[in-house]
Amino acid sequence: MMVSPMERGLDRVVALVDMDCFYVQVEQRLNPALRGQPCAVVQYKGYQGGGIIAVSYEARACGVTRNMRGDEARKLCPTIKLARVPEAHGKADLTRYREASVQVIDVMSQYAIVERASIDEAYVELTAQVQEKIRQMEGHVPIPSQLLRTFVEGWPRDDECEKEKPLNDCEDAKEACRLHGVTTWLQLTASDGAVGNADLNLSIGATIIEEMRAAIEAETGFRCSAGIAHNKMLAKLACGLNKPNRQTILPHSSVPGLFSGLPLGKIRNLGGKLGTSVSEKLGVEFIGDVVHYSKQHLEGHFGEKISGWLYDVCRGLEFEPIRPRNLPKSIGCSKNFNGPEALDTREKVRYWLKELATELEERLVKDKETNQRVAKQLTVGVHMDTKGQNGTLSRCSAMTRYDANKIAADALALLNACNTAGRGQATWSPAVTCLQLSACKFSEVAVGGTNDIAGYLSANAKPLLPALPKMGSSFGTPPKSVKDRGSRTIGIAELFQRATAKNQQCSQATNMSFDEGGDNSTKEGNCKGEHTSFFRKEALSAIHDDDDDDSNSQRPDTMEDFVISTSISPTVDDDSAETTPDLAVRSSNRCLEVDSNLDLQQDSGIIDTLSKMKKEGGNFISPEDMENCNECGKTVSMWELPEHSDFHFAQSLQKTFSASCEKPGLMRGTSMPASQRAKRRAAPPAKRKKASANHTLDSFFKKSS
Hints:
Elements: E1 14-19, H1 22-30, E2 39-42, E3 52-55, H2 57-60, H3 70-76, E4 81-84, E5 87-88, E6 91-92, H4 95-108, E7 113-118, E8 121-125, H5 127-137, E9 150-152, H6 171-191, H7 194-220, E10 224-229, H8 232-239, E11 247-249, H9 255-259, H10 273-282, H11 295-313, E12 331-336, E13 343-345, H12 346-371, E14 373-384, E15 392-398, H13 404-415, E16 427-444, H14 453-456, H15 472-475, E17 487-489, H16 492-510, H17 534-551, E18 571-573, H18 574-577, H19 604-615, E19 626-628, E20 635-637, H20 641-660, H21 674-682, H22 697-704
Parallel strand pairs: 2-4, 9-11, 10-11
Antiparallel strand pairs: 1-8, 1-10, 2-3, 5-6, 7-8, 12-16, 13-16, 14-15, 14-16, 17-18, 19-20
Helix pairs in contact: 4-7, 5-7, 6-7, 12-13
Main location: nucleus
Pfam families: IMS, IMS_C, POLH-Rev1_HhH, zf_UBZ
GO molecular function: damaged DNA binding; DNA-directed DNA polymerase activity; zinc ion binding
């Protein structure tokens, strides 16, 4: 069945929950004496009483509004109480308000999908919850007693209720009007058809929001208002119709009446240049007037994309989904520098960037601990005093770690291009009137994971490969316990110094011969990188075991293994980092360090056995593991055959290259007749006459003359 344009999106139920004068409620919770009193929250600066950022409804009744100064508010309302925002890092500290917002979001998330819109607003997707509740109600509809704080926009339809009356004027009459409107609308909803079903969804959604708002007040002490409609745009408009501590249902049938007197600027995205363009080109003032223009007419003025959106919006249709987002997409801080406070020197800019970076670091670290995520991008914004010209810009860079010094340095590097005073000058021109730092593009991190590179490069960290069994059973008993020298911090330079010292010791160790008879070809170390057979190692291990069993000698194992890191200051535990005899994970150029106190006389059994095997050919490989090479006929170990075949392939490849380069005088791609090639081969160039071996200085001058 075809769905008419007016029915699109009417199956959704969306709500917007808005906290009533949120900053004031937070201060009232901290100081209960402020409840019921006219009060306001002012900025931390005390100039003229401070700028007001939030006003209670009691103070609003006296004419106090936001953007006033505290002194001006006292003139209008002498009994007003002013609560001041805390200060940190030279600017307002909003931590207490953010934490209160998180508490509210946590309660809302228990009921439905929540999309955080701001510190005091959140959208709620109720469609699935409404459908589930309809199945549970089995055809019943909500009753007025379930909607005690709910208004229905457009109901009742006569003029017996005036919405514009003040709250203290005829409260009883207004409540009676509200109850009459809700009752009438619910009765009509129960008897209607398809449209009634859409309104039924809204009524059930309103009961869920009533429960949610009651839970928020019970668990946090905060009161809020809400709007319930079929999309986010209408829910936002409905929320502000009957504040405070009330909620409003906006049925689709009431949209034309509401839009007929709603200015264009009240619609999101129509409050700026686009709204001005629509008003000028169409000659309209209210959003409801746009409905008289066809889609083709709108396309002629605004293009296909904007005209399609405008055509739907003026009819109350909008399809933006609720995106589950309980956390902010970005974390940032900013500060304004008005008038004489403008930053006009490089040192001032550097100082305030450091202050903002410190606050940003604190908040990011706390966010990481709470939400297991890290930011990947740093954004720097600046407003400059350019005397009427556009002096606003922003720059982005990667965020590698949460460090205030690093963040401030990166931000300053991004802003250096804005300074026209020159790199060597102490001044900053044009002067900065606002600085902003923010972090975004968050990604999740594993619980318990380490994202700091210093943590990865610490020698105390667990090795990437599992530790193999200690080699005491093959090369002697396990080493004696080393003195616990504690944990200390080392740098890159010391690590390389250690490596250099080890290489020197290794070279000394390799000069020691296991063959006392003068045969120095057999070494237990392999410092020059030549390949050592696996079977040779196994044989050495077995011989060493036998010798240990007979003599019961105790030799310290002096092999050391450590994690080489690139950290600036990794922490290394000497006990765990220098006594791990792990040969299997050692690189091919690591050498077996021989203790200077090693008594080679006790190893006579090993030396004699090695000398004997050396004389017999030094081959420790079983004949079954040998194969003949097809190229040269040489008998090669099956383990070395692939490498041996590669050698022959390289030889043939070299011959091919040599043959192609025999005629350097010819251009590539040209050929020489066979007769000329044979002639050149037959007549090699004459050799130079061999000069006399001995010449005297006199003979040389005689030849020259």
